[in-house]
Design goal:
It is built from 6 helices and 10 strands. The chain is an alpha+beta fold and about 240 residues long. The strands form 2 sheets. Strands 8-1-2-9-10 form a 5-stranded antiparallel beta sheet. A hairpin with a 5-residue loop joins β6 and β7. α2 crosses α3 and α4 runs antiparallel to α5. The longest helix is centred in the middle third of the chain and has 22 residues. The protein is globular.
Length: about 240
């Protein structure tokens, strides 16, 4: 865990990406993970009808047009994704995911399957942990989509990824995950999955919660992705 790091005893191992600490860690990767955990929250869930991502846009200035802040992006006709951490890094990786998905369609004439796309993005993230002169991507990703059935993956800055029934990235990750483990079940409907995600964000954000800072993305099996914000969310609920 991040809190196990004794920052006073690193002995310069945090200065070079390619040098392991005596404990076998790449300290710059640990820093990148901390950057991801400091980003605005995103929650992903698999439901019996499809996949859902509920995310906090965390708009810091009331003069910013809320709809201009993209937290959930459509990658392909069957895949959506979100990120937490350093925003430009997240945007670059998801743009790359879009290009990979498009190239696959052109070459093979079929949509890319979700695990293959996740592996490609994980390989890119891992590459940036192996060379001096670069730094790791300071983001974690949630990638959700429909192949034959709904699939949900999360990737961290090291490039490692796992498939989940439900997961959380970003600020409040550990607290929200405990509640998610208690309340999640695989038989949730799509609407119930959206409600659960919003409920968990509302509990975490407390007085800072407003529906205008929440964005929802979902894919229902056999249908195209939908992104909702503000009043649009209230209508479907």
């Amino acid at each position: 865990m991040w809190m196990d790091l004794d920052l006073g005893m690193l002995g310069g191992y945090d200065r070079m990406l390619t040098i392991f600490s005596p404990e076998g860690r790449l300290i710059q990767v640990e820093y990148a993970k901390q950057a991801a955990r400091s980003g605005s929250t995103a929650i992903g869930l698999v439901t019996r009808e499809g996949v859902v991502i509920v995310a906090d846009k965390k708009v810091h200035n009331k003069l910013v047009v809320s709809s201009s802040v993209e937290k959930i992006l459509i990658v392909d006709d069957h895949i959506i994704a979100s990120f937490a951490g350093f925003i430009p890094d997240g945007r670059i990786l998801l743009d790359e995911a879009r290009e990979i998905a498009q190239r696959y369609r052109i070459i093979y004439g079929n949509p890319i399957n979700v695990p293959l796309l996740v592996r490609e993005i994980g390989d890119i993230m891992e590459t940036y942990t192996r060379f001096s002169g670069v730094r790791p991507f300071g983001v974690s990703l949630i990638i959700a989509g429909i192949d034959v059935d709904p699939k949900l993956f999360s990737l961290d800055p090291s490039g490692i990824y796992y498939q989940y029934y439900a997961t959380v990235i970003g600020e409040g990750e550990e607290k929200i995950l405990k509640d998610l483990e208690e309340k999640y079940n695989e038989n949730l409907s799509l609407i119930d999955g959206i409600k659960l995600g919003i409920e968990l964000l509302e509990k975490f954000l407390g007085n800072n919660f407003t529906i205008n800072r929440i964005t929802v993305g979902y894919i229902k099996t056999g249908e195209k992705p939908v992104i909702l914000e503000g009043n649009e969310i209230q209508k479907i609920l």
